[in-house]
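Each field is set out underneath.
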Amino acid sequence: MPIEANYKTYYAIHLNHWSETWGGVTYNKLLVKDFPDSNLVSTATTKASSIDFLYPRLVENKYILDGLAEGHFTLYNDNASTVTTVTAYTVSVKKTDDVPSNETILGSYTKNISSDNSVATRSYLTLPIYMTTSNTPKISVDANEKLILHIEFTGGSDLCISHANDSDNIDIEIKLPYAPTG
């Protein structure tokens, strides 16, 4: 009988007055378990085709990500007069210690899309994430490592990745399947 993994849900946001340097990179974008106070100064979108969100806590115990990660992310068309399209996207979960360029991919999902991929002017498109995180051999996340959610897409130059600090309209959500090692 299959064993159901323990899942933890994270939301991706950008806080203007928070930053952490880890692995030689300074992050304002982070993964949170609960949305913080809505009065914190935050940024709702980033005009970039690639973005990383850091989970700022160190892992307390050794574990693996094993199973199906589920969620979604949202793109926003910043153009007031032109409809644009998304042609592909990749979402990855990585681990890294506090060493520059020392990331390991724990799971990745790439999708080419050619229908239902238009984003109307000043409008949003939400895309699903269903990513297998099982690795052979299993890759553990150790107590001195943090997680990174990486999102990238190909499409119109006016597209932004949405990450507002808004629990009523969740832009990015990822449920990760944790399993103990051993």
Remarks:
- The two ends are 18 Å apart (CA to CA).
- Residues 2 and 67 are 11 Å apart (CA to CA).
- The chain has one domain: 6-180.
